[in-house]
Amino acid sequence: MNPDIERVGDLLQQLVAIDSVNPDMPGGERGENEYGDFVAEFGRDLGLAVSRQEVVDGRANVLLELDGGHERTLLFDIHLDTVPQEGDLGSARPVRDGGRIYGRGACDVKGSMVSALFMFERLVRDPPPLNVALAAVVDEEYRKRGAHHMAAGISPDAVVVGEPTSLQPVIAQKGILRFAIEAAGKSAHTANPELGSNAIYSMLDAISVLRALPPEVMPDAPHPLCGKGQLTVSTISGGVQVNVVPASCRAMVDRRMLPGEDPMAVWAAFVELFSGREAITVGEPYAAEAGVESGPEAPIVRAAAAACGRLGRTELIGVPYSTDAAAYAPLGRDFVVLGPGDIAQAHSNREYVELAEVSACVGVYEDLVRSFAEEDGRG
Question: Any alpha helices (H) in 157-289, and if so which ranges?
């Protein structure tokens, strides 16, 4: 049986009440460490091996391990940080309304953390023939440094990333490429604009090019699970004063890549696209993560499909966003992204998760672990 709703609700309210906004974002002064301490203490109380891994500026990952000395290890990755808060029901103050918990992080992803912690409670009582670990990582919402740091020091056989997927197994996700485009001009008084060169106009021309990308920069063919690639010019800034011709303009570009696209090759195509425009410079990427996918016959995918299938969630899906799964791709390990909650609620000012789904996910996670132990033994 799954934990009763009261226990699930009580633990989730405790977690949501811990402010863990990413320190690189507004309101993130407290960071993730208080939340990490809570997870570590929960693990110690269960008798799990607990270790910390400093990542940056005192921010630390926490690793819980149920180590039975087996050959194979399954890793759960669940991030500690949240995005900033806004609005009464988006704050760190948890609000329980019927069968839901509202509050920042309830859906993304403290509901997954509750499910994983209660899963460990059950595995400790009846250990599987498999080592199971939980990486509670920092910085997923900004640069994913926590997961990359964890991946550099661990070698699991497969990874389950806790994210709100409505308990539908995700086996493919898009990648991210983010960079700036700079337009250079020449300042002049707006009474005599012909004496200058308007950088904003140059940027508008560049944006027109971006809105009509050729296939070598934006492939037409969709991915069977993730759809087509996407590009968004998400911010633009330029000029200093209304009566001065702007000498500079800067735009930020977000390109969502399909599995199989190489981030640096995609970036090089943008550089080549603007190589003949002296006023335009394409900056180095500040985020570059490939899209990744697992095959439908991978043992972890079969295990997830079996666990979710008991709830009638039989479809294997892809998503347009990126998760920590990308950090483990260089290890050559298969993954699934799976957890309670709807991604549509994540980051919203009325973020919530259904307690019944969090409770159900405990059983899904446990079933996945036990199925993977059997599947991996066969495949």
Answer: 199-210, 263-273
Phi–psi pair at 376, nearest 5 degrees? -65, -30
What CATH number does the domain containing 150 carry? Answer: 3.40.630.10
Q: Which two tokens stand for residue 175?
A: 């990648």
According to the model, what pLDDT value does residue 27 have?
86
* Structure tokens that stand for 38 in this block: 């809570």
Same domain as 234, residue 214: yes
Phi, psi torsion values for 327, nearest 5 degrees: -70, -30
DSSP assigned state of 262:
-
In this predicted structure, what is the pLDDT of residue 338?
99
Determine the pLDDT at residue 89. Answer: 44
Single-letter residue type at 90: G
Q: Are residues 164 and 227 in the same domain?
A: no
User: pTM score, two decimals?
Assistant: 0.91
Provide the residue range defining the domain that includes 321. Answer: 5-173+291-378
Report pLDDT for 376: 54
Report the C-alpha dihedral over residues 318, 39, 43, 68, rounded to 10 degrees: 30
Q: Which residues of the chain fall short of a pLDDT of 50?
A: 88-90, 379
CATH classification at residue 193: 3.30.70.360
Residue 231 β-bridge partners: 255
3-state secondary structure of 77: strand
Q: What is the pLDDT of residue 145?
A: 95
Contact assessment for residue 175 and residue 263, using Cβ atoms and an 8 Å cutoff = yes
Is the same domain home to 9 and 123?
A: yes
Instruction: Tell me, yes or no, whether 45 and 136 share the same domain.
Output: yes
